[in-house]
Fold this sequence. Notes:
This protein has helices spanning 10-21, 191-198; strands spanning 28-31, 33-45, 53-66, 70-73, 76-83, 87-96, 116-129, 136-151, 154-162, 165-170, 179-189, 217-231, 234-244, 260-274, 278-281. By secondary structure, it is mainly beta. It has a single domain, classed as Outer membrane phospholipase (ompla), Chain C. The strands form 2 sheets. Strands 2, 3, 4, 5, 6, 7, 8, 9, 10, 11, 12, 13 and 14 form a 13-stranded antiparallel sheet that branches. Residues 1-14 and 21-27 have low confidence and may be disordered.
Amino acid sequence: MRSAKSCSNVFKVLPLALGLACSCAQAQQRPLWELGIGVAGLHLPYYRGSDSERGYLLPFPYIIYRGDFFKVDDEGIQGLLYSSDDLVLDLSLAGGVPVPSDQDGPRQGMPELAPTVEFGPSLEIRLWHEPRRKHRSLWLRLPLRAAYSVDGLDWTHEGWVFAPYLEYYRRPAAASDPEYSVSVGPIFSDDAYHDYFYGVKPVYVTAQRPAHEGRSGYSGSRLTLTASKTLGNLSVAAFLRLDTLKGASFSDSPLLEKHSYHVIGFAVSWILGRSDTLVHSP
Length: 282
């Protein structure tokens, strides 16, 4: 049995918090790095389609680094492989929180699930931008990530996730302007990934919980709204994500409790120091 207790819940929460807190980019010469502190709040289900939810409120380090090949910014943690005005190839990171064993829910008597970490390449294509100042743009982003469950030093490959999406992005035209984005797209995963969250092995079958084996295919779709604003050394950000699982390949799993849900979050951060070295960051 895998235990999630030895692993930190921040595998999901901290990357989200960093993505929220760092989403205050502007097209200009900016410091190579910025450091500060912040607090993030999130409310999300244990896994997509779970009726059990949890809220998180935790401090985090505010970190921005705008290097040529490694970045921590509004897109999270990235290893930049290639970049031009209209094409970017980078490495991206995502994750999931631990899933406890239910006392009286659909996972009653089943083992806990360790938190997951996902990483892989993302090809990003700019389809359109505002002709003059380029503050508004439309991107097609194509991340393909390998997923691993993490139990201490034990990393186990749990499958693959492909989550293409269109994103309309507006960066600030001036320092006092807000930044926001709207993105929408489907998610596809292989049988191993679906089986990790939604599979029921014969040993865990009950009268109310039939056996289920994960199948590759459609994993639902999501709409994400983000907004942020910088007020001097203070940055505030918020996001709302709406997911639908109707028609997903695991829709007949007894562990799927609802076919739509939402995730909300916010972050407030205070910048304590900046690099004297300036770099261009579009």
